[in-house]
Amino acid sequence: MMKEYKSEEEFLKDYDSSIFEKLSMTADILIFSVSDEVQNNYRKLSKKHFSVLLVKRDNYPFKDKWCLPGGFIGIDEDIEDAAKRILANETNLHDIYLEQLYTFGSPNRDPRMRVVSTSYMALIDKNTLNEQIPNNASWFNIMALEDKETIFVTLDNGSEEIKFKISKTLKEKTTDRYKYDILENDKLAFDHPLVIVSGISRLKNKLEYTDVVFNMMPEYFTLGELQQVYEVILGKKLLDPAFRRMIASKVEKTDKMQTGGGHRPSVLFKYKSHD
User: Fold this and answer.
1) Is 152 helix (H, G, I), strand (E, B) or coil?
2) Given pLDDT bands bounded at 50, 70 and 90, which one contains residue 42?
3) Contact between residue 270 and residue 252 where contact means Cβ atoms under 8 Å apart
4) DSSP code per residue over 18-30
5) Cα(33)–Cα(247) distance, rounded to whole angstroms?
6) 30 neighbors 120 (Cβ within 8 angstroms)
């Protein structure tokens, strides 16, 4: 017969937490950036690259494989505080845009034990970073090709390529949400291909209804540079008139001009805050 308690204090005094199996919590940080390619032809607008920051593991499991910066959350630590701590410890980066992405909890995602990970997405302009990333970290340019059922991703840091293949299945038709599963992967640790694909999808969607992209821009920019950033994330060309209408309320013209480098002088814009 179940005992009846007169108060919550009495219940908690008798409560035995050992009846439940234990699990561990981690935070993984997905850091995206858009930056300029080194351009030999100074008359052309520098090509943009969409990239992600990875670190190489130096211990087991997945020793010598690449992964997202991550770590375990302390028992008395707030999850967001843990994400900021891990970001600083793993990458030397501080005070950058950070938002919670998804929670990944497949029972077999970590061979050590049952581990649930809360992932965070960070957006930066790595051209303006003052911090030096660690020696075991590297920026990988992202190329993603997608059809109705499959996503093919290639990550390239100039000396190494990482490729993985993801299946996508429509989960909720009314919200256009997809379930992702790893079909092929040999160089990324854990289920991090799923985190990367989920982050790319989230970022593409947020470009349409938020101003999140400006976390990846310098303070002043031309409209051509801003359009390139949208295009490299979305993976498609945008018509100039449609793009200008889309960002008209998000930017404001300044009295500054971009000159030199063989380009025609261009008006510089900045983000228009709506605070």
Assistant:
1) strand
2) very low
3) yes
4) GGSPP-EEEEEEE
5) 20
6) yes
Tens of pLDDT, residues 189-219: 999 999 999 999 999 999 988 999 999 898 9
Domains of the chain (ranges plus CATH)? Answer: 26-209 (3.90.79.10), 218-271 (1.10.10.10)
The pair of structure tokens assigned to 166 is: 């993801």
In Å, the largest CA–CA distance within the chain is 85
The structure tokens listed for 125 are: 């302009």
In whole angstroms, what is the distance from residue 154 CA to residue 200 CA?
13
Please name the residues in contact with 216: beta carbons below 8 A apart, sequence gap of 6 or more.
32, 33, 34, 123, 124, 125, 229
Identity of the residue numbered 142: I
Residue spans of beta strands (DSSP E) within the chain: 24-36, 48-56, 66-67, 70-72, 97-104, 115-124, 137-146, 150-156, 161-172, 177-185, 251-258, 266-271
pTM over 0.85: yes
Chain segment 65-97, per-residue pLDDT in tens: 999 999 999 999 999 999 999 999 999 988 888
Strand ranges, E, within 173-250: 177-185
Radius of gyration of the chain (CA): 22
Nearest one of 43, 8, 30 to 194, comparing CA atoms: 30
* Euclidean distance between CA atoms 226 and 219, whole angstroms: 11
User: How does pLDDT run across 87-146, given as a tens digit for each residue?
Assistant: 999 999 888 889 999 999 999 898 888 999 999 999 988 877 777 888 899 999 999 998
